[in-house]
Write a structure and sequence with these properties.
This protein is mainly beta and about 130 residues long. The protein contains one helix and eleven strands. A hairpin with a 2-residue loop joins β4 and β5. The chain is elongated. The N and C termini lie far apart (about 70 Å).
Amino acid sequence: MFRYSLPEFRNKRLLRAEMLEQLRDYPKNIVKLALEDFSDGILSGGNLSWDNGGLTVSSGMLCWKGRLYFQEKPCFIPCRSVNDMQYLKVRFADEQWETDQVKGTGEIVLETKVTDSVCELELCRFFVPEQI
């Protein structure tokens, strides 16, 4: 059965926990339904550009183990010639549980070690030969 339920706020009426839960859950449920067929990876943005001896990863959104991670500002990663395959990836830290929220972080790293699929998501790999 399809349905909808929206809280109605009126003057001199009590604000109930259920009303706040509806406001919290509504956008979360929309996003969950819209993205349920997506697997881990970049969902939007995260474009790469090369400039000034490094890579810039644009702002974007990715999915990792059912959680959405957002990068609101571009990230610059210095890159030098190492004559080896380089892996640009996101390394995820363990979730942090606090009193009223759960937080997850992912740091963009560039290194020559192969991606560890347990805690990392590969964005790309490339080879920059040493300059002669």
